[in-house]
TrEMBL record:
Protein name listed in UniProt: PF03932 family protein CutC
Domain of life: Bacteria
Lineage: Bacteria, Pseudomonadati, Bacteroidota, Chitinophagia, Chitinophagales
Keywords: Cytoplasm
Keyword Cytoplasm carried by entry: yes
Compartmental location: Cytoplasm
Keyword Cytoplasm: yes
Location (main, coarse): cytoplasm
Protein family per UniProt: Belongs to the CutC family.
InterPro entries according to UniProt: CutC-like, CutC-like_dom_sf
Length: 254
């Protein structure tokens, strides 16, 4: 048992902060407000140049549901190939059928295409109709881990299912808890779920350097999101989550 912290980073600067804070792995995304979409080629390429820890770009062509057209699937396959060419350690995927099951055929095609990179199945898992059936399907197609909030909005709310998933997985696949993971709840999540891999953005909004700000125009307009705020992973928050997580796991071992 060892504590693993993955940072969901939406920029190269956030990747660097994740590494400096001691994270072991990065899920590289764009558009976090939509749950994460595939970042640009340049973002992946420069992130790979700047950080040495494991880099896993998300393969998701758009926000919304996880039911993709043939054209979208072609884009996903191309993105997997590009990630391999750029030297990424893995990719993050998730495709469902219309009835809420894991699309084993398409997901297996992506896993095979990604090899020898690793593959994480993302929170599309939380949108399946039967999490235990989905668990077995994802193990069957060859993913390394499942990112899940326990089929609730946050990992704290889904703690009971997370615990059950860890027990059902029985070391056949890693269960990684994500959504709402913070320094102030990481210890309790470890103790109540048995999960040892965690996923968080550890981000805050940094003030823009813009001096002139047109009061008549809003480019975002999303409640709770500052118009002149830049979302970025915070090195100190990563460090704090890692330290508290490692301490909690060590106490359990003793």
């Amino acid at each position: 048992m060892s504590f693993v912290l993955e940072i969901c980073a939406a920029s190269v600067a956030s990747c660097i902060a994740a590494q400096e804070g001691g994270a072991q792995r990065i899920e590289l995304c764009d558009n976090l407000l939509e749950g994460g979409t595939t970042p640009s080629y340049a973002t992946i390429a420069i992130a790979r140049e700047k950080v040495k820890i494991d880099l896993y770009p998300i393969i998701r062509p758009r926000g919304g549901d996880f039911l993709y057209s043939d054209l979208e699937f072609e884009v996903m396959k191309k993105d997997v190939q590009l990630c391999k060419e750029l030297g990424c350690n893995g990719v993050v995927i998730g495709i469902l059928t219309a009835d809420g099951r894991v699309d084993k055929h398409r997901c297996k095609e992506l896993v095979d295409l990604a090899w020898p990179m690793g593959v994480t199945f993302h929170r599309a898992f939380d949108m399946t109709d039967n999490p235990f059936e989905a668990l077995e399907a994802i193990i069957e197609i060859g993913c390394e881990r499942i990112l899940t909030s326990g089929a609730r909005n946050t990992a704290v709310e889904g703690a009971s299912l997370l615990k059950d998933l860890v027990e059902r997985a029985n070391d056949r696949i890693a269960i990684m808890a994500g959504s709402g993971v913070r320094a102030n709840n990481i210890a309790e999540l470890i103790k109540t779920t048995g999960v040892t891999e965690f996923h968080t953005s550890a981000k805050a909004y940094e003030e823009s350097g813009m001096i002139y700000r047109n009061p008549n125009v809003s480019m975002g307009g999303i409640p709770g999101v500052p118009e002149y705020g830049i979302s970025q992973t915070q090195r100190q928050e990563v460090l704090l989550i890692r330290e508290r997580g490692e301490k909690a796991l060590q106490e359990i071992k003793q």
